[in-house]
Amino acid sequence: DIQMTQSPSSVSASVGGRVSITCRASQDISSWLAWYQQKPGMAPKFLIFASSTLQTGVPSRFSGSGSGTEFTLTISSLQPDDFATYYCQQAHSFPLTFGGGTRVEI
Amino acid sequence: EVLLVESGGGLVKPGGSLRLSCAASGFTFNTYNLNWVRQAPGKGLEWVAYISSSSSSIYYADSVKGRFTISRDNARNSLFLQMNSLKAEDTAVYYCARDRGSTELDYWGQGTLVTVSS
Fold this sequence. Notes:
heterodimer, A: 106 residues, mainly beta, seven-stranded mixed beta sheet, 11 strands, 0% helix, 48% strand, B: 118 residues, four-stranded antiparallel beta sheet
């Protein structure tokens, strides 16, 4: 199975600030990586696929990069609505696996 | 608008069974692969099962293999998860999620809570 490791597990930031979250895969997954945002009590929301392609409607302050085993989600100019938990997921092979999550706090 | 609505969750004793349903609307159901993903209280996301659009390919997480069965009814736009021999560690919110075609999950239901406890 492919293990996904996210860091940090939590990060504090201010409105208007910038945050970067790293996701590492235990083996090469090319660009088969997705990112999700989840707020308490709600279902995950799909943000990015193929490592760097924004889902329709996702603000451009979100960006994704990376390939192989190391990936990054960056949120520039944080907005109040962005404070949430973020998960990466490898889409390379079954079983699908998620990172442990990164909580972005004020 | 794509909608996925789960139902069937509840409280069940260890060793018991439960059948979850997911009613879909707003898209051509029989052309999309689907998944179940769960989230234990206060924990992260765990993929549970996948079924292809025609039911020809099915995969399970090792943690549920042999106990859970995923199925779908394309005529009724519905996805199911039959859960048998339930354990306390199966306690979670269960989400159905649409696969955009590359095992990236673009739409999710609101989830249904399954609690396994005596």
